[in-house]
Amino acid sequence: MRTFLTFIFIFLSLPLFAQNSTLRQGNKAYDEGKFGKAFELYEKASEKAPSEASYNSGTALYRLQDYGAASSAFENALVPAPKNKQEASLNQNALYNLGNSAYKAGDKEGAKQAMRAAILLNLKDKDAKQNLQFMLKEENAQKQSQQQKQNPQKDQDNKQDKQQNQDKQNQNKQKQDQKQQEQEKQEQKEKETSAKEEAASVLQMAQEHKQDLPKQEQRSNQIEKDW
Description:
The protein is mainly alpha-helical. It has seven helices and two strands.
C-alpha cells in the first residue's frame, strides 16, 4: 500500500507486514503515529529479519523527516540476490522508497537512479513512473530557469564588449583625426614657407633685373639760345 505525501506525485510504501512479533509491534506503533518508538522496535528486530527491519526502519525515519538516514535504511534493505517473489517485491519497494527519500534529502540524481531501478523491476509501477516523470520535469524547469538567468548576464557581457569595441573605435578615429589635423597643419605650414620663399625669390629677381637696365641720359633743363 502507498500513501500520498505532502508534495505532488511522491508516495511512500508503508511498512511490510511481518510474522516477527517485534516487527508487528513496530507496525502497530507506526500506525499510531509513534514513529520514534516504531523505529526502536524495528531496530530490535534487525537481527532476526534484517531486510524487513531495515525497510520498516526506513519508513519510520522517513516519517521522522530524517531522509538521509531513511535512504540508508532502504538501501540496506535490498536483498543482493532475490530468491523469490517476496524478496523481489521487497527490493522493488525499497528502491521506490529510496528514490523518494533521496529526493527529500536533496539527492535528486540518486533519486532518479533509484526510481529508474524500481521501474525496471516492475514495469507496471505507475507511481514510480509518475514520480520519475515529476523529477525529470522539475529538472528541465530548473535548467530552463538557469538558462534564463544566464542569458541576461550573457547579454550584459555582449553589451559591455560592444561598448568596449565602440570606445576603441572612437579612440582610433580620434587618433586618426588628430593625425590628419597635424598633417594638414604641416602641409599648410609648408605651403606658407614655400610661398614666402617664392615671394622672396621673385623680389630678388626683380631687384637684379632693375640693376641690369641701362641708365637713361639725363637731359638738361637749360634752354638753348637761338642765336
